[in-house]
Design goal:
This protein is α/β, with parallel strands linked by helices. It has two domains: 3-217, P-loop containing nucleotide triphosphate hydrolases (Rossmann fold), CATH 3.40.50.300; 228-297, Elongation Factor G (Translational Gtpase), domain 3 (Alpha-Beta Plaits, 2-Layer Sandwich). It has eleven helices and 14 strands. The protein has a six-stranded mixed β-sheet with strand order 6-7-8-3-9-10, sandwiched between helices. The chain has a four-stranded antiparallel β-sheet with strand order 2-1-4-5, covered by helices on one side. The protein has a four-stranded antiparallel β-sheet with strand order 12-13-11-14, with helices on both faces. Helix 3 crosses helix 4 (109-122), helix 3 (94-104) runs parallel beside helix 5 (138-150) and helix 4 (109-122) packs across helix 5 (138-150). The radius of gyration is 20 Å and the shape is globular.
């Protein structure tokens, strides 16, 4: 596959003063969905920021579909970026947030209007287009940022924790959108803490730890590796006591307990397939409103350390 079709890292390092970001990265990423997996501080966000040209490497060379990351004007027309930080200009509606971005990007008013509605439709936000973003739920804000990243129809999408805060049904729809974009020939580079969904949506996975690539390749057996390490989620909803009663008797649920303020529920599960189906069923049957479903880092880091320990200590 030619350089014009791939993202290429050649002996890339990034240091922040004396602090290592990533070191001696050699990596070729083909079209499709590539997930970056690793514990907090492993180098995932550094790798993504290098791909977008937001930071430049200390050493080495990066090419994104034939364009150097040192050519920002050319690069930004090819790349869509959805970062992990939730920040919006004050007072804008969802429509205005995307429309203004497309105008700055160089679209005509007619093109910007058409592109805005197309992007909003793809993330199912048309009904909330003229509401102010500050009144959106966390999941809706996440979808608004995703819509902005795809509005100019990029060839490469860099998505830092794009599923964070989405309820199970919104996550399923977003994964469906990612697969659709990948079938159209796009590169999608996604970082995620949610190993079950990495397994579900990825064509390949790059495992990173302490700034080094530990392994790369197709996903296999991630759910099996999780068997001894139940994953804990925090679910914020309108009736957490009802949800606790419904999930507690399930075999897939190891533990369910209310938060101290009784506004949410901590759930530990060994089988995310079964638990996701259960959660969707409860939402429909009880008309439950889910505000967010968030992985709890301590449990997930335990899984990563387990996988990293099993994966060896050098760059693959």
């Amino acid at each position: 596959m030619s350089g014009a079709e791939t993202i290429v890292f050649e002996d890339v390092s990034k240091f922040y003063g004396e602090v290592l970001g990533v070191n001696r990265i050699n990596l070729t990423i083909a079209p499709g969905i590539t997930s970056l997996v690793g514990p907090n501080g492993s180098g995932k966000t550094t790798l993504m920021n290098l791909m977008t040209g937001l930071i430049q490497p200390t050493g080495g060379r990066i090419s994104v579909t034939g364009i150097s990351t040192g050519e920002p004007e050319r690069l930004f027309r090819k790349v869509g970026y959805c970062g992990q930080f939730d920040s919006f200009p004050k007072g804008l509606t969802g429509y205005e947030f995307i429309y203004s971005y497309l105008l700055v990007h160089g679209e005509t008013k007619k093109e910007a209007e058409a592109g805005t509605w197309k992007a909003l439709e793809r993330v199912d936000l048309v009904g909330a287009a003229h509401r102010k973003v500050e009144g959106y739920s966390k999941g809706m804000r996440q979808r608004a940022r995703l819509a902005q990243s795809i509005a100019h129809e990029p060839e490469v999408m860099i998505l830092d924790e794009p599923l964070n805060g989405l309820d199970p049904m919104a996550r399923a729809e977003t994964i469906r959108l990612f697969r659709e974009l990948a079938r159209d020939g796009l590169h999608l580079i996604i970082s995620s803490h949610i190993l079950h969904e990495v397994d579900q949506m990825s064509d390949r996975v790059v495992l990173i730890n302490n700034g080094y690539i530990i392994a790369e390749g197709q996903v296999s057996g991630v759910r099996d590796e999780m068997e001894e390490h139940p994953i804990q989620y925090l679910i914020v909803c309108d009736r957490p006591s009802l949800l606790a009663a419904r999930v507690f008797a399930e075999d897939s649920v190891v533990e369910a307990r209310l938060t101290d303020d009784r506004g949410g529920l901590f759930v530990k599960t060994r089988n995310l397939d079964s638990f996701s189906l259960l959660l969707n069923r409860v939402v429909l049957e009880e008309n439950l409103t889910i505000e967010s479903v968030t992985p709890v880092d301590d449990d997930l880091n335990a899984v990563y350390h387990y996988l990293i320990g099993a994966g060896g200590g050098g760059q693959a």
